[in-house]
Design brief:
The complex is a heterodimer of chains A (about 500) and B (about 300). Chain A has about 500 residues and is an alpha+beta fold. In chain A, about 55% of the residues lie in helices and about 15% in strands. In chain A, the strands form two sheets. In chain A, strands 1, 2, 3, 4, 5, 6, 7, 8 and 9 form a nine-stranded mixed sheet that branches. A five-stranded antiparallel sheet of chain A has the order 10-11-12-13-14, with helices on one face. Chain B has 14 helices and two strands, in the order H-H-E-E-H-H-H-H-H-H-H-H-H-H-H-H. Classes of the chains: A alpha+beta (about 500), B mainly alpha (about 300).
Chain lengths: ~500, ~300
């Protein structure tokens, strides 16, 4: 017999998913609806079947992980094989329906209209169109509020007696209502659409393109131009030479096309991309290694010093030294951004009054890199200090006694005795720290934003950009929004870091 | 005699070094506190603002209190923030604490299965989770954006520019916490739960009534670690949250420091206001945290 909690866990998400599934189905996404339905069943099975007991504990976590880690990962790898970008934003069916919905105004037929006000706040109107072929016939709408965005409204055929009793509005009253009228599309019997063409008339809209479902090509009903989809470039192109241009000229919006390994080979062959990419890659490695080395050196010195039992106030020192780690990183990074500011920054103020120097921290690539390493050491040494302290405390004191008898000094002791002992537990943490800094987006993005910019790069690329910040800027801060290329780099980054952590896990023998 | 003099010299040198180093560490913080009380947005002035230099205008601004500012031509205008920083603070607090609580729920139950149960491909699954987790959220943004857009079409409360939507995206980051909690569960002897089961407790009762209360410290560690990393999270929040009133602190604080519009003083007040409670909380829980950190968590 299922317990109340069990029923709750099975039924609530189940119902929610069923509801979602219905919405998805009605919204025209049958595959997603099916997936939601399958998920509802899975939830019910996991929480009701005794044999799935273990999975009751794993299920919620795995779902979260699957939805927000594995799905985005797979999606990203997927787009890396396409040309998805701001120029190729839509999916193919969306572009097809874009052409299907394109209309033009037939100039030769006109439907004079009458506008009746039938109610007060907000003003309610009815529109009656005079049929040009049968002047006694009218197409009348229900009472409506003139919309502030595009809307299609049905009409019914009536004769003159059925028109509203009030006087139709005059021109002067129609003028302020024009914007609302232009948002309206009226549907006549037979599905013909008419829109407002002026202060007196509505006119019919005719489809501009005739669709050929066999190969998804279109023919322009006015000019006879033939266009076909080019699946390699993700654009509709002219099928033959014509007045609009030679064959192959793109027409309309682009769609996402499968481009295979193009994004990956571009990195290797395109000069405008290859140069910046390799420089960014090299800097990423230097930055990550340098950050780990510097913060380890500082953290280790402090940890060893604070292990000195005769030193008073060790606790106070330790607390104060942890401070950079305790303050949220985004705050300290932004503080440094201000302190290093060329004109208003306190650091340049002090340097100026002491040495007469005003270094351009954000404009000079080398100084910018130096500043990044300084700030990251400041941010990172407390973690290393904490970690080293923990490991140092596990080293037995007795090993030093033997060496003290031999009369060796502290530095010698550290490198010959302590370091070899603590290296083994320390190493995996250093690899993890390297991997973390390899993707330390927050620091780079908030401190320099990747700048100063590289000259001659064909995408946005900065001298201090590391791979992640470069990827982010390509996808979100560049007008081209080249998601495909950004995803290809993201995939490469993932492979590097995943290999690194796999190797680390293997060494740790989980 | 000679030995004790050298020892005293060594101690003095160590103190000097540490005090000098700490002064260097604290310099940025002291600067920011000073700047937050200084008039205007320029760095000129004494370290401790006094007299004419001293002003509460930045504090009034971040707290949403109207104040009067004298313009360049001598006219006076009243200034009030459209979105007080306190709103961002509350948003951050809400998102980070709710998401952390949910993360504990998800990773705690999963960790129990990993620690106490046998199932197919257990180690492989755990390892895969840890490796897949290194895919940074910044790189997943295109997908997360598309996902939230899709969810938002059908359930607007979970879509783009909503706090629940943002929390949802954070729920993926559980692998490292599962790993930490499992490590803690492993140190608690199974025999206690076994004996409870002999007395008639179910699996679930043994988990909730016996294991969970004994594991309170690790849950505190996970909560705080996750809270701190989420409060600092910038890229996802900056893309998901689009209107100023929904921003979190990390997104909002950044908006003061644009190159063209460098509001140094207002940023300083924001930094002190938001940094203090979080820092205090961290220092307060330090003992817990250090044990958690050395077991393998890297702050993000």
């Amino acid at each position: 017999m299922p317990r109340p909690l069990q029923l709750l866990l099975a039924i609530l998400p189940g119902l929610a998913l069923l509801y979602l599934s219905t919405l998805l189905y009605l919204g025209g996404r049958p595959l997603l609806a099916l997936a939601a339905l399958g998920f509802a069943c899975l939830t019910a099975i996991v929480y009701l079947r005794p044999r799935a007991y273990t999975w009751r504990y794993l299920f919620p976590g795995l779902v979260g992980f699957g939805l927000f880690v594995i799905f985005p990962l797979a999606y990203t790898v997927g787009i890396s094989f396409t040309n998805y970008s701001s120029a190729n934003l839509l999916r193919f069916p969306q572009v097809v329906s874009y052409f299907q919905n394109e209309t033009y105004l037939a100039a030769d037929i006109k439907f004079p209209f009458r506008l009746y006000r039938t109610g007060g706040e907000p003003a309610v109107h009815r529109i009656a169109l005079v049929d040009p072929r049968e002047p006694g016939r009218f197409h009348l709408t229900e009472p409506l509020v003139l919309p502030d965005q595009a809307q299609t409204v049905d009409t019914t055929v009536v004769d003159a007696e059925a028109l509203p009793a009030s006087q139709p509005l005059g021109l002067r009253e129609i003028i302020p209502l024009r914007a609302g009228l232009q948002n309206l599309t009226l549907r006549l019997p037979g599905g013909k659409l008419v829109t407002n063409t002026g202060l007196r008339d509505f006119g019919p809209r005719l489809p501009l393109w005739e669709h050929n479902p066999a190969d998804d090509s279109f023919v322009n009903t006015r000019t006879g131009e033939h266009i076909r989809p080019d699946r390699e470039t993700g654009r509709y192109v002219l099928a033959a030479d014509g007045p609009a241009g030679p064959a192959g000229t793109p027409v309309g919006p682009g769609f996402r096309a499968w481009t295979g390994l193009d994004n990956y080979t571009r990195v290797l062959t395109d000069k405008g991309i290859q140069g910046p990419f390799l420089r960014i890659f090299a800097w990423t490695v230097v930055f990550a290694l340098g950050s780990v080395a510097c913060s380890l050196a500082v953290g280790m010195i402090l940890a060893v010093l604070l292990e000195w039992k005769e030193l008073p106030f060790r606790k106070v020192y330790r607390t104060l030294l942890v401070l950079p780690y305790a303050v949220p990183a985004f705050i300290s990074i932004l503080i440094f951004k201000g302190l290093f500011n060329q004109n208003f920054g306190e650091i340049n103020l002090i340097l100026d009054s002491l040495f007469g120097l005003r270094p351009e921290w954000f404009a000079d690539p080398l100084l910018a890199k130096l500043m990044i390493l300084l700030v990251n050491t400041w941010l990172g040494f407390p973690y290393m200090m904490i970690v080293c302290t923990g490991i140092l405390q596990s080293v037995p004191d007795t090993i030093y006694e033997a060496s003290a008898i031999d009369g060796s000094n502290a530095v010698h002791d550290f490198f010959k005795l302590t370091l070899p002992l603590i290296w083994k537990p320390l190493f995996p943490l250093l690899v993890a720290s390297f991997a973390f800094n390899f993707n330390n987006f927050l620091l780079i993005y908030l401190l320099t934003g990747g700048g100063p910019d590289m000259v001659g790069a064909s995408t946005v690329a900065g001298q201090t950009d590391i791979l992640v910040s470069y990827t982010f800027r390509i996808a979100f801060r560049d007008s081209a929004q080249n998601f495909g290329y950004a995803s290809a780099i993201a995939t490469v980054i993932f492979l590097i870091v995943a290999l690194l952590s796999w190797w680390n896990l293997k060494n740790q023998k989980v | 005699m000679k030995a004790s003099t050298t020892r005293r010299l060594k101690l003095a040198a160590a103190h000097c070094f540490l005090i000098g180093f700490i002064a260097l560490i604290l310099f940025p913080f002291l600067m920011v506190v000073a700047i937050s009380f200084r008039k205007g947005n320029f760095a000129l002035g004494a370290l401790i603002p006094t007299g004419d230099d001293f002003s509460l205008e930045h504090w009034k601004y971040v707290l949403g209190i109207p104040y009067e500012e004298i313009m360049g031509d001598g006219t006076v205008r009243t200034v009030q923030a459209t979105t007080p920083v306190l709103v961002w603070f509350w948003n951050s607090l809400k998102v980070a604490s709710t998401a952390s609580a949910l993360i504990i729920l998800l990773s705690g139950t999963a960790a129990y299965a990993f620690a106490r149960m046998q199932f197919f491909a257990k180690t492989t699954l755990l390892k895969s989770l840890l490796i897949l987790q290194v895919f940074p959220m910044v790189l997943a943004l295109v997908a997360l954006y598309a996902l939230l857009q899709l969810i938002g079409t059908y359930v607007p409360a979970l879509g783009l520019n909503t706090h629940p939507g943002l929390m949802l995206t954070y729920l993926g980051g559980i692998a490292i916490y599962i790993w930490m909690i499992k490590g803690y569960f492993d140190t608690i002897p199974v025999s206690i739960e076994e004996s409870a089961k002999i007395d008639g407790a179910t699996h679930f009762q043994a988990f909730v009534r016996i294991l969970l209360p004994m594991s309170a410290p690790i849950f505190a560690v996970v909560f705080i670690l996750s809270f701190i990393s989420l409060i600092s999270e910038y890229p996802v929040a900056s893309v998901v949250l689009q209107t100023e009133d929904r921003w979190t602190l990390a997104v909002g604080a950044q908006s003061f420091l644009y190159e063209q519009n460098f509001l140094w003083g207002k940023f300083a007040a924001t930094a002190v206001l938001s940094g203090l409670p979080i820092t205090a909380m961290f220092l307060f829980c330090q003992k817990f945290l250090i044990s958690g950190l050395t077991s393998g968590g890297v702050k993000e």
